[in-house]
Amino acid sequence: MDGLFAPKGDRSLKGLSAVVTGGSRGLGLLVADRLLARGCAVTIAARDEEELERARGQLLRDHPEGSVRAVRCDVTDRGQVTALMREAAAAHGGLDVAVANAGIIQVAPLDALGPEDFAAAAETIFMGAVHTSLEALPWLRRSPAGGRLGLIGSVGGLVAAPHLLPYSCAKSAVAALAEGLHAELAGSGVSVTAVHPGLMRTGSHLAAEFGGQREKEFGWFSAAAGSPLLSMDARRAAERVVSSLERRRIRVVLTPAARAADLGHGVAPRLTARVGALAARALPTAPPDGEAAAQAAGRDVEAAADRGLHPVLRRARSWAAALNDRASGRLNQRRASSGGAKGSPA
């Protein structure tokens, strides 16, 4: 359901202090932008310092009167997250809002994945959300405005997506974490909001890691993520995220396609599983043993992916991905290094 509500309280975010992990690019960068627009003092966190500084500069250009701090932080390291929350609280006299957004996406068939891929997704997406939640909570409990905790999940965590299995598993754990935290924190004054977006035009195809037949995987993912029929404008998605935090919503599913998938899985799980199996058969298979290349970021396989396509298919992919390609420059994706921040590519 798009929007279960928590008890009403003061909805204004003006003057509050907020932390956004994975805030250097993509959805996290836009969430920080929307928080600044509401008068929050914002701390963005990610691993890549250069990427963070570019993001901070962009935010300050758009909000010259705003307060923006950039802190290098790897969310897989609880000690670094502890220091992040302490630094943000010290700089702004407390912490009122925390958004756990950091993540990675690996796009590959099962036969091109190993246990290490599942572990990497779990460490960044799930444990990153755990560390952010646990380290923010002591500060959020003290917030005079009533703390707000936002966990960015995904429709992939509600309905498993083929060729995105590590991502889906980790995002499913985030969904359970959000529900459990909401129950545990009832009456504490801290609201927990779970946001499950569908595909968004954030330029995530450049930051995602592709395995198996990398160029073909990049081709279908970039086209789907940029299709106006399947994906959502990222700025509008960020506005919905922050609006949900304002209104202390419990659970929000973004995009009509994501809501349909969520509803279909609940009403007709067998049919949903069959549709997923059909989709998996239509996607590229893994290369034969010994021929699979290592995973690579989308920005590193983009040119090769286009060269390998028939000209008609190349034009079709270019058309479908055009909106996402344009978003990549605005959202600090295209210039990021391959070893960039553990910020959400979604």
UniProtKB/TrEMBL annotation:
Gene3D superfamilies: NAD(P)-binding Rossmann-like Domain. The keyword Transport does not apply. It comes from the Bacteria. Keywords: Oxidoreductase. InterPro entries: NAD(P)-bd_dom_sf, Sc_DH/Rdtase_CS, SDR_fam. Residues 324-346 are annotated as: Disordered. SUPFAM superfamilies: NAD(P)-binding Rossmann-fold domains. Belongs to the short-chain dehydrogenases/reductases (SDR) family. PANTHER family: DEHYDROGENASE/REDUCTASE SDR FAMILY MEMBER 7B, DEHYDROGENASE_REDUCTASE SDR FAMILY MEMBER 7B. This is SDR family oxidoreductase. It comes from Actinacidiphila epipremni.
